[in-house]
Amino acid sequence: MKVKTILVSQPEPKVENSPYFELEEKQRVKIDFIPFIHVEGVSSKEVRKQKVDLTKYTAIILTSRNSVDHFFRIAEEMRYKVPDALKYFCLSEAVAYYLQKYVVYRKRKIYVGKRTFAELSPLIKKYKNEKFLLPSSDMLKPDVPKIMNKLEVEWKQATFYRTVVSDLSDLRDVTYDILVFFSPSGIKSLFENFPDFKQNNTRIAVFGNTTIKAAKEHGLTVNIKAPTPDTPSMTMALNKYIAEMNKK
Hints:
CATH class of the largest domain: Alpha Beta
Number of strands: 11
Order of helices and strands: EHEEHEHEHEHEHEEHEHEH
CATH architecture of the largest domain: 3-Layer(aba) Sandwich
CATH topology of the largest domain: Rossmann fold
Radius of gyration: 20 Å
Strand order of the largest sheet: 3-8-7-4-5-6
Mean pLDDT: 94
């Protein structure tokens, strides 16, 4: 069956040269972007209940832009003046670059990983005398605490924001040829919004093994997978699938 419409369960890219826009033009398909989940910050009162005293920590581990935003939001709410000496351990260059929204980059001690938490861990281990705070969502990847505990450093995880299911009621009577998911939370949101969802002729595209697992657990047939050796990105996987389907 040919592909004409795609729904990506994420916000629309803000960059003009997004590969999604190139895919849309190249394959002459319509791509919509609607976040199936969104982030809500917890209050400083809730953070205090987790026995977090920001003054006790000498290093912050930042795994996403959300963690950056909500760390500085909570710091402001708690009237905590972030010291210049605080060390920042950022999961990737993108997170480190985003940190400039809040600090003068060249005047801070910032350590940057490549992409994964495992790749960041050797940098953390080098500074084993620091006291680390890991502000995160309520859905922290399970491998993160395992890695941190192996490093034998003093650290604490605290929930600064939550992943919340979005209201998708506007989509009740809308169908797409392909639905694209990037996390188990997106799959969860689909079935919380539409408990009676039937896949029928809709193709399901998923990114990552945990998302594939969640899709199958909900009885979905996964038609498009990424990353693979041939298609390391979702747009590449979509392009390959659409090219095959639409030439028939």
